[in-house]
What we know:
Elements: H1 13-19, E1 26-29, E2 33-37, E3 47-51, H2 63-84, E4 88-93, E5 106-111, H3 131-146
Antiparallel strand pairs: 1-2, 2-3, 3-5, 4-5
Helix pairs in contact: 2-3
Amino acid sequence: xxxxxxxxxxxxxxxxxxxxxxxxxxxxxxxxxxxxxxxxxxxxxxxxxxxxxxxxxxxxxxxxxxxxxxxxxxxxxxxxxxxxxxxxxxxxxxxxxxxxxxxxxxxxxxxxxxxxxxxxxxxxxxxxxxxxxxxxxxxxxxxxxxxxxxx
Length: 151
């Protein structure tokens, strides 16, 4: 891990992406959180919001860090319709069960009426060649404007 990522865990893929040691399509990056496109998204634009600090679950996040972290989640969810053309979002967090990476992450999923997402059966999709980068650039352009202040 690089010295710019205190508390990083070497075998954590999110810590490695944050440190720049592993590729990831980063669409949000500030002192509190990083937004990374899910490589197996429910829908294009599906973003994982992770705290820079390595914690495994929401309960592990320090109380004073919850507000700033969820302000980023809120902002990303609010901007998702502009960035992707969706109508709304689904926001979710798994703790331990169904948590594929042991680093706290909140899913912000773009939604449209009739998109086929029902209950908790979530068929994953993939990005065709070049789509991940195009979607990432579109999200970064919209999200970048939000770092100057709250919505």
